[in-house]
Specification:
The chain is of the alpha+beta class and 403 residues long. It contains 13 helices and 16 strands.
Length: 403
């Protein structure tokens, strides 16, 4: 059975978000966001992560966790006072739509949601709302919950059947920056439905998969073996009131595999497991609509890159995958399509994100170079023509429903 790749987010427009003055990009079921250190790759993912956090906890929380509006909006000589995000998506039920908001500074302190807009289905026909500074300006539904300018209305609107699918899809994105130190510590047993951003509850998630989704657990195990060949398996292990991971590892001359607790496992192995669990954690209780992973190749042996790439491709059949990377090894694949790449660069502190330039595309299409080789040669850069075209005619955050 072949499953066609799934994509939730089709297009992302950002304005004045951290180092990104403006960006307008299309995403694939599997997209590699590639560029040097400090170019703005994490900032791009963080804009999506902020949407997820604001929907799951509150806008206030999501902003505070990031140091407040002053840290989030772009610092530049133009002194922008607000930032904005527009996400164009396709829901699991096939309907297309968009969700957008912008946030500005209040005179004394704090911030307010200036505009917020959601539209689904055919232009002007499907569910939609439009809010300006806490006032509902347009709405497809006969009633709408009370809105205030310090919160995202989509949270309240998720109580209405019409908007629930949008909320569910955007709130079910997962973002990962795995931290082996936290994965190694004894962990408090939790529900484990969903892997947390640094992998700090991975033992619970493995335990949950063992109980409710042995098939997914088997996929994790299979890929773990191909990424880290010595490792034969991994299980959740109870230690007093706490829990951790126990790895089964092949040992020359030993009849049975040796057992190692997470504490004694390498950074690379723990990170690889975290990446795989992030990718394949979907189960009957919870399935992420999109998984964003920061630099999945970190601490891995270059030889493991092909196996890691296979895992990314396999996962993207079920859930959209976004990956940040500056690893030539990860991108050294003649089958990697140039459409799957977004190049990121920083020019004078300002981030540009766009498809790669036509000469590099052509080189890849003719199999003269892999993306990895181009990256090594510093030839994987955003197409300057697209960048200047986009910044000259900046697409609107609001209105329209073309996806
Ligand atoms: N509010 C902001 N305004 C302008 N630049 C910012 C802002 N916040 C962070 N940056 C810049 O973003 C850069 C880091 O971007 P990041 O996305 O972490 O890079 P990477 O590509 O390594 O993931 C830093 O150079 C930092 O100065
Ligand atoms: Mg980064």
């Amino acid at each position: 059975m072949t499953v066609s790749p799934r994509a939730l987010l089709r297009r992302v427009i950002l304005r004045n978000f951290k180092s990104i003055g403006f960006c307008d990009v299309r995403l694939q079921p599997l997209t590699y966001i590639v560029g040097p250190n400090g170019s703005g790759k994490s900032n791009f993912l963080d804009a999506l992560h902020l949407v997820r956090d604001a929907l799951n906890s509150s806008l206030d929380n999501a902003m505070n966790e990031r140091g407040g509006l002053a840290e989030i909006r772009r610092r530049s000589s133009g002194h922008p006072t607000h930032f904005g995000i527009r996400l164009e998506f396709e829901l699991p039920d096939g309907r297309a739509g968009h969700y957008a908001f912008d946030i500005g500074a209040l005179k004394d302190r704090g911030y307010e949601v200036l505009n917020e807009e959601c539209a689904l289905g055919e232009a002007g026909q499907g569910p939609r709302f439009k809010i300006n500074r806490g006032e509902v300006k347009a709405c497809s539904e006969t009633t709408f919950p009370l809105v205030t300018a310090d919160r995202l209305a989509l949270v309240a609107a998720s109580g209405l059947a019409a908007f629930r699918p949008v909320f569910d899809a955007l709130a079910s994105m997962g973002f990962y920056n795995l931290n082996p130190r936290l994965m190694r510590e004894l962990q408090k047993p939790q529900e484990g439905r969903l892997l947390k951003p640094t992998g700090e509850n991975i033992a619970s998630v493995i335990g949950h998969l063992e109980r409710v989704a042995p098939g997914q657990q088997a996929i994790v195990k299979e890929f773990l073996q191909s990424v880290v060949p010595m490792v034969q398996g991994v299980e959740r292990k109870q230690v007093g009131p706490m829990e951790t991971l126990e790895f089964l590892q092949e040992m020359a001359g030993a009849r049975h595999p040796w057992r190692f607790l997470a504490q004694n496992m390498s950074d690379g192995t723990l990170r690889a497991l975290g990446v795989l669990v992030a990718l394949f954690q979907g189960n009957r209780d919870y399935a992420p609509t999109l998984v964003g992973i920061e630099e999945p190749e970190t601490a891995l042996h270059p030889a493991a890159s092909a196996a890691l790439r296979d895992a990314l491709v396999r996962a993207s059949a079920q859930t959209q995958v976004l990956v940040t990377s500056h690893s030539p090894e990860l991108l050294s694949d003649p089958d990697l399509s140039d459409d799957a790449l977004l190049a990121v660069s920083s020019v004078g502190g300002s981030t540009h994100i766009a498809p790669i330039d036509p000469a590099s595309r052509e080189a890849m299409r003719q199999h003269l170079f892999t993306a990895g080789e181009l990256l090594r040669l510093n030839q994987l850069v955003p197409d300057p023509a697209i960048v200047s075209q986009q910044s000259a005619r900046q697409a609107e955050l609001f209105g329209g429903s073309e996806v």
